[in-house]
From TrEMBL:
Record-level Gene Ontology MF annotations: N-acetyltransferase activity
Organismal lineage: Eukaryota, Metazoa, Chordata, Craniata, Vertebrata
Database matches in PROSITE patterns: GNAT
Record CDD domains: NAT_SF
Keywords: Acyltransferase, Transferase
Cited Pfam families: Acetyltransf_1
Gene assigned in the entry: LOC115433565
GO process terms (BP): polyamine metabolic process
UniProt family annotation: Belongs to the acetyltransferase family.
Protein name, as recorded: Diamine acetyltransferase 2-like
N-acetyltransferase domain location: 3-168
Length: 177
């Protein structure tokens, strides 16, 4: 199938927002999505963007049954490893179900790797849900290491409440006085 991959533009944020929700539905966590397309526009298309995004687009004649030509996306940003240096983190990779198996996912992933290399990143990292065997296989066949298996790493997060508690502690410690 004919498709092209290009950097997202501000006006793509509605499509990206739609697919973020599709991905969350697929992962059974739709209730967790709080972000709006306006926030994506603000955070991705400002002077110092917090993320970059690639879009997969098909020609009008191949549009989805619901009339969409933007059919996949990869959203990523840059991180830093104290062991290895510049790194790129793939937050989301998604292709609409009716377009899967056409090389779009591979195309998006390869492009993120290419862009990362251009920016001197030495590694590409991501997390994947345990039960998502299709995606785990997709990454494994392309050489991704499973750090949970090889290094026993756990993925941790402070949600807002506990982050607030930590932040309150900081003001009491007066560490910058
Ligand atoms: C994982 C995902 C991005 C792959 O996208 P894709 O466009 O189907 O990927 P490709 O066509 O490049 O490759 C898919 C692989 O599955 C095979 N495949 C064949 N038909 C397929 C189909 N109908 N659906 C899915 N995969 C199919 C392909 O041959 C290919 O195998 P390979 O690894 O041997 O090359 C896509 O399945 C997806 O969006 N899944 C739901 C969201 C998700 O899991 N995202 C990753 C979260 S970290």
């Amino acid at each position: 199938m004919d498709f092209k991959i290009r950097p997202a533009r501000k006006e793509d944020c509605k499509d990206v927002s739609r697919m973020i929700m599709d991905l969350a539905v697929f992962e059974n966590v739709a209730d967790q999505v709080k972000i709006s397309h306006e926030e994506l526009e603000r955070d991705g298309f400002c002077q110092n963007p917090l993320f970059e995004c690639l879009i997969a687009e098909v020609p009008e004649e191949h549009k989805s049954k619901d009339g969409f030509t933007v059919v996949g996306y990869a959203l990523y940003f840059y991180t830093y490893s104290t062991w290895k240096g510049r790194s790129v983190y793939l937050e989301d990779l998604y292709v609409m179900p009716e377009f899967r198996g056409n090389g779009i996912g591979k195309g998006l992933l390869s492009k993120v790797a290419e862009i990362g290399k251009e920016k001197q990143c030495v590694r590409l990292q991501l997390s994947v849900l345990d039960w998502n065997t299709v995606a785990r296989e997709f990454y494994a066949t392309r050489g991704a290491l499973d750090l949970t298996e090889t290094e026993g790493r756990h993925l941790l997060r402070f949600e807002q409440l506990n982050m607030d508690k930590l932040a309150k502690g900081a003001s009491k410690e007066r560490s910058f006085d």
